[in-house]
Amino acid sequence: MTWCSRQPSALARSKSRPSARLPIALLLAVLLVLAGCSESEDRLNAAVRSFADALSRGDAAAAAALTTDEPAATDTLGALFASLGTDVDVKVGEVEEQDGSASFTLNTTWKFGPDGRNEWSYSTDGAATSDGDDWSIQWNAAAVAPGLDEGPLSYSTLIPQPAARVLDRTGAELLTQHVVTLVDAAPGADVNTIAALVNPIAPGITPQSLAADLEAAAGKPVTVITLRQDDLAPIESQLSTLPNVTLRPQTRLLVTDRTLASPTLSGLSQLWQQRTDAAAGWAVTAQTAAGPRRVGGRDAGPVGDIAATLDIGLQRAAEDALAPLPTPAAVVAIQPSTGNLLAVAQNAPADAQGSIALTGLYPPGSTFKTVTVSAALQSGQVAPDSVVACPGTENIEGRQIPNDDNFDLGAVPLHTAFARSCNTTMGRLAVNLPPDGLTEAAAQLGLGIDYTALGMTTVTGSVPVADTPALRVEEGIGQGKVTASPFGMALVAAALANGSPPAPAIVEGEPAVADRTPEPLPSAVDEQVQAMMRETVTAGTATQLQDIPGLLGKTGTAEYVDTETGDQRAHGWFVGIDGDLALAVFVSDADSSAPAVDAAGRFLRATP
């Protein structure tokens, strides 16, 4: 509303007296006044809109230029945008003019945090003054944001207190928040002294490596190392006195036992961060003369601990079992009755390749015979006691299949051929299956099924439909186009122990969801395969584990061609069932199953 719009015009007054005639000169004067009012109102609205638009762009200079105190406004607005950012939207509300001055309302929304999830909305009142035909915004910091007239504003995240922890299945702390310190070095720092101080902690840090890092940073500081408090304490005083070295404390989620390095920890850390972020609050604070005063925000909500399914004792035993192996190796242990992952371990060479325990795909070799014999039993072509041929080598549908070292058992019961790992027997059984026989039998045991699980990413493997007899022969012995991850083969063992694939989980009470539900495994088939796996340990290819009471197992050697050299190589596998524990051990480039079997033994003998 303006002064002009509130005054009754001469024309309006004349309408109340029908007999009166308005002189032409007076009418022209009224029209000129109205035109002047309209132009003044337009100029005022334009000034306020321009001020709001400049604030919305985060353009401190443009907004300040529209005010009555440009230097003060420039400083205040520049500091405001530097602190709160520029994700701000300012809308003009009401504008009223009277006697050369005006008032207006601004409706403002700031967005903070990831994806702008935190919003601060408020309305403020401002004033404008005219100077001839022009309008200026009366500078008042409170017209831009609450509390800005009392001091600079800052945004901060309010972390839930106490912070959530990640616990193992016994309630022991697995991941907790720790204070760590980043050691930053700027150009000119004494690389020799820095390296001498931190090299005992991180042998890879040398004067040469530090110099190279600083050169690559092109004049910017580099973070030399991140140290826990117990590592920092002995050298903190020396580091803090070095020129061009800065120590920056931060809070991070770390493994309580730093010797543990499961690939599942990254997924659990991400889940912890998601839940912490969702519960986090925030605050916009004015730094007043009397101290900080919150002018906007939301309190942090409660956040509970995350109960992981891992068992720290089993995890440590699995990592220790893999430590002596020089090639990438992994162990996955699942509780068949629940699907809970109890241990997921890798050695250092495997860590360099990524999360091979959960997502690495390899030919499973003879461990896949658990699937082949399951399919053959279901097809009705054999029973556990059926006598089958196990020649040392056989040409099956044009594919020459040898046994290991061409051993020849002659005619033996199926359970013996399985326990001794007869390739020729399994190849002959597979070729008589329908094209999708192995695909469906694998799915019944969880292999080839995709699972979506909270806190982890997994891949089980792939068993393509075998359209040709030759491909069925190769797939029957875990070669050809069949692939499996250590996680996938552990799930196969768990399914045989449980009678069906359990829904895998890394967080208690949060089972994975399968992308499809295959036909159930017929009753008795699981028990028949279990009996054959028991014979594998007592009188087959895994007799070095027969001291472990009741253990069931299946060994596997999976051939592959080295793409760089063209040489024929082999991975080693072992899958087993020990009571309510199912496991898979994978050893890359092992030449045989022996290293995997030995690692399984070290793991199982170390567990209660």
UniProtKB/TrEMBL annotation:
Assigned GO CC terms: plasma membrane
Signal sequence region: none
Domain NTF2-like N-terminal transpeptidase: 46-151
InterPro entries (UniProt xref): Beta-lactam/transpept, Beta-lactam/transpept-like, MecA_N, PCN-bd_Tpept
Domain Penicillin-binding protein transpeptidase: 330-591
Biological-process GO terms, alphabetical: cell wall organization; response to antibiotic
Highest taxon of source: Bacteria
Pfam families in the record: MecA_N, Transpeptidase
GO MF, any single term: penicillin binding
Protein's name according to its UniProt entry: Penicillin-binding protein A
Species of provenance: Mycolicibacterium vanbaalenii
Organism placement in taxonomy: Bacteria, Bacillati, Actinomycetota, Actinomycetes, Mycobacteriales
Gene that encodes the chain: pbpA_1
